[in-house]
Design a protein that fits this description.
nine-stranded antiparallel β-sheet, single chain, 3 helices, globular, alpha+beta
Length: about 190
């Protein structure tokens, strides 16, 4: 009878982790390809929730993002509750809203006509103007107790850039980049 070495166990565990990440990304992209449901009515509500948002570099965004696209904001949905914000006795509900985009160009991820981003209602920095063109870095994320899952801007507001022609600039961080150069770096021309 052969014994299993710790190295073989570590290899199998690592392989299973990679398979889980790939399966999660595929499931999220399949869900995006289905027809999108209606957005909840009403405006999003920005909450006075204390949140520490870790800085994300452009290189980290390129590495972490499951989808990178250029698109125009079509609609903003109302807030959806996902759980309690803060200690249970605070009674504060944490909410998110969805923003629907018409996708002009997919630089990473599936090529779809439209998709929804899930945006936490924690900051006025996470607002999108209808009819405005954006470059978005997005990652798969679950909110609440897994009640709502899908694409969310990478690093929250840090993954959103206004796009004008080939140029994209973050109003929040001041970072500017060329969409064509980014497409080349990500392997999509």
């Amino acid at each position: 009878m052969q014994s299993v070495t710790p190295r073989a166990v570590a290899f199998v565990v690592g392989l299973l982790a990679v398979i889980a990440v790939v399966a999660s990304a595929l499931l999220a992209s399949v869900n995006q390809e289905r027809s999108l449901g209606p957005l909840p009515p009403g405006p999003p509500k920005n909450q006075a929730v204390e949140a520490t948002i870790q800085g994300v570099s452009l290189d980290d965004m390129k590495r972490r993002s499951h989808a990178v696209f250029v698109g125009t904001a079509l609609a903003v949905g109302g807030s959806e509750g996902i759980g309690v914000a803060g200690p249970p006795e605070s009674g504060g509900e944490l909410t998110v809203h969805r923003v629907r985009f018409s996708v002009e160009r997919a630089l990473r991820g599936n090529r779809v006509q439209e998709l929804d981003l899930i945006v936490p209602d924690i900051s006025e920095l996470d607002t999108f103007e209808i009819g405005t063109r954006y470059l978005i870095f997005a990652e798969n994320r679950s909110f609440g107790d897994g009640q709502i899952a899908g694409l969310s801007p990478t690093g929250y507001y840090q993954g959103t850039f206004r796009a004008i022609g080939d140029a994209a600039r973050s109003d929040r961080t001041g970072v500017s980049l060329s969409i064509e150069q980014l497409a080349s770096e990500l392997g999509r021309r």
